[in-house]
TrEMBL record:
Keywords from the UniProt entry: Leucine-rich repeat, Repeat, Ubl conjugation pathway
InterPro entries attached to this UniProt entry: ARM-like (IPR011989), ARM-type_fold (IPR016024), Armadillo (IPR000225), LRR_dom_sf (IPR032675), LRR_Zer-1 (IPR056845), ZER1-like_C (IPR055142), Zyg-11_UBL_adapter (IPR051341)
Domain Zer-1-like leucine-rich repeats region: 148-288
Any Pfam family the entry gives: LRR_Zer-1
Gene3D superfamilies attached to this UniProt entry: Leucine-rich Repeat Variant (1.25.10.10), Ribonuclease Inhibitor (3.80.10.10)
Protein family (similarity comment): Belongs to the zyg-11 family.
Protein name: Protein zer-1 homolog
Organism whose genome encodes this protein: Astyanax mexicanus (Blind cave fish)
Keyword Nucleotide-binding attached: no
Amino acid sequence: MPEAGDNPDSLMSLCTVFCLKNLRRTMCYTGERNKLCLRPDVFLPSEICDKLVNVYMDLVYTDSNFEAQDGFFQLFSDPRSTRLTRLQLRDLVRDKDVEAIKKQVGKLSVTRGLKSCILGLYATLLKSDFLLRLLNLGGMQAVVDVEALLKPLPALTSLDLSGVYLPRPAFLAQWRDRLASLVLYNVDLSEELISTVVQMSRLRHLDISRENQRNSKFKMTRKILTSIVQSLGNLVSLDISGHIMLDNCTVPQFEDAMGRPSIEPSKSSIYPFQELKRPLQFLGLYNTTLCNVTHIPAYKVTGSKNEEQVLNAIEAYTESRPELAHRAINQLFDIARIQHCSQLLRALQLVIAALKCHKYDKSIQVTGSAALFYLTNTEYRNEQSVRLRRQVIEVVLNGMEQYQEVTVQRNCCLTLCNFSIPEELEFQYHRVNLLLLKILEPARQDESIQRIAVHLCNALVCQVDNDHKEAVGKMGFVKTMLNLIQKKLQDRMCDQVMEFSWSALWNITDETPDNCQMFLNCNGMDLFLDCLQEFPDKQELHRNMLGLLGNVAEVRALRPQLLTSQFITVFSNLLDSKADGIEVSYNACGVLSHIMFDGPDVWSVEDPERDWVMDKMWDAIQSWDVTSRRNINYRSFEPILRLLPQGISPVSQHWATWALFNLVSVYPSKYCPLLVKEGGVALLEKVLELDSSQPETKDMARYTHTHTHTHTHTLSQNMLCVHHW
């Protein structure tokens, strides 16, 4: 069962999003001059129209892959086929969009200010016979005469004047018998304004909060707060966040500490709220000292005392007050980092919503992405559903697309590291690779971001199918990694970025000839030689480079490019390497084994001679410990198996047989089934039949064959026993 609050999207929501992303395939057609038109047989009731427009606004605002449709609002211009009742119109709505829906205005409630086109909409309203009930003028410029603007609207029941300059607030008294909701956030309060507000006996929601206490001449006294509570008997929601309390509004500390926390007004630790008839549904105390008391008569309180108050603040302020949401998310970040987040699901959902709603707000993106890193780490992983983790990934990728700023990029990349890669990123595979490659494009990137991004790139091309690798190669992956290596060479620095870049190239060229070709075309061999010369003692680097060249050598058409005196000499010398156990020597021998497999006729190198190189290969193989544990991972034995049934290069056959001997001996559970699956047992039998096979090779082939048969037979018997039981 899905967790509470983490249920699948409703069918209505899924259908709405599908229709909006496929308008011309569902409810619309293309008219003259490519105009978007509603199909003539379509009639959409208000609940569907409202949903379509509001979800459309959300998608335009939060989904980086969703493109706004020119003419979308014209679809709702005819009230005979469409009905609009309640919309959330954002700043990105244009004048012509408002003009398109003006015929619907008799049934429209505006719940968000439009700044640029609100006056045009207002003019349309006045020309109609509609009595507007809900109006948000938050953020209107001071030059607008709000009193004159509102006077012709006697039916208002909800009014938001956030940040609006009110030189003569007494005019608001004309709605004292009608207003149920009044928002005066960041409005400069005065005695005249307060005396007007307390006359509004029908108010159920009052917000007189501030962003902060700076530059505020008004002080919230116990007398004022008591007056509000006593005068507004219908109040269920009150926000006084950000105010300085001038005198002592709270009970003594010893009294506050008595008993368990209670929401009963009579037990309130805040004196004025003892006058309440019942607990408030909501009480905003964010950025005030009042949030720290024990007994607060409200079901939901915003503040910074504990996780519950912080989450309430994020929930309450995200949409319209990003500056407060930013602070609250920062506090949540501290809770998740230092303490423990007990409401993980809710916390994640709120941060995701904030990041979606404010994808252009840098402060939200910085704090939100940082919080996600701690909320998705191993400690919380078991509490998260697949759907929720996918939502985190999507919002992180949105942030990476929008911001090239160092902190956001670092936070987003670090958060992605909390996921199983590539499995959990598979559904966004193309997109995440493009974004990471874009991060790595700049000539001089932040070192920490570069290191994390290369690590992610490496993980994304490890253990994925060849189609994925080829697709990423075409994005410029190989060129990007080589550019990073080139920059590190110029700096004479062999760090994690250098090593991860070679490792990523090793992974992306595995059984992918096109990517191997790209490596050669981009002068990869020159970089290999330069790195070898500049960093002769870097074992991990050597292992990664030789692993990559092993992939190149597996491609028959590319082997002639490796058959030069310089390269053969280098590979031969590396046979003696003891770096990283046997890995460098093993990989060098693998490269030479594939080259030798093409036969003496193609050997165009005079120095060193082919026989001399083969002798060195025999000596190297004889020196390896067959019980060596390996720092390598084979997805397929096919490149090795092709070297078995042949007599043209016995040393290549010997290397391949040793490789199988070692792997099935040390890791039988993993590699015995793989050998059987890919037909390796039959090929080992051919090795035993060939006269050209060396005795030492046959001995290893015989052991590998027997060991594989014994292991798989025992495994089958165990499975039968378990099944029978």
